[in-house]
Design a protein that fits this description.
Layout (H helix, E strand, L loop, with lengths): L17 E5 L5 H13 L15 E5 L10 H4 L1 E5 L6 E5 H7 L1 H11 L5 H7 L2 E3 L13 E2 L8
Helix pairs in contact: 1-4, 3-4
Length: about 150
């Protein structure tokens, strides 16, 4: 490589791996930050901001993720039905009981840039409430998420 040249990944250079992360007793925000980094490919030396160089991430045990403080009762997710007066809301505890996959998916989406590329990168995230997943054929490697340094 010549001095002063900026490296840009080509589609042929991208080698995608599959990782499986156990979300049991992991703090939601810290977990989502690590997942977003892997989906974007920022953990690789060939990271290129305008290309999808990231890997696939499988999250299991989403229902056992940990929320710090009083977020389980106080954090609220809002959406609108599209009808007049159609604003709806659910607390994080209710959403974890009903759709635990959505809590992790929304947290990761919040940590990705808001553009077409990030929507493509989010499709590489597979979240499952329990310990089982149907991606054994891809031979995912277990990935340990770093805990906070105290």
């Amino acid at each position: 490589m010549e001095k002063g040249k900026t490296y840009m990944a080509r589609p042929a250079d991208i080698d995608r791996k599959w990782y499986v992360i156990d979300a049991e007793d992991k703090v939601l925000g810290r977990l989502a930050g690590e997942i977003a980094t892997i989906l974007r490919g920022k953990h690789k030396p060939q990271f290129t901001p305008h290309m999808d160089t990231g890997d696939f991430v499988i999250v299991v045990n989403a229902e056992k993720v940990k929320l710090t403080g009083k977020k389980r009762e106080q954090k609220t997710y809002y959406w609108h039905t599209g009808y007049p007066g159609g604003i709806r809301s659910r607390t994080a505890g209710e959403l974890l009981a009903r759709k635990p996959e959505e809590v992790i998916r929304k947290a990761v989406w919040g940590m990705l840039p808001k553009n077409k590329l990030s929507r493509q990168q989010l499709t590489k995230l597979k979240v499952y409430a329990g310990p089982d997943h149907p991606h054994a054929a891809q031979m995912p490697q277990p990935l340990e998420v770093r805990e906070a340094i105290r």
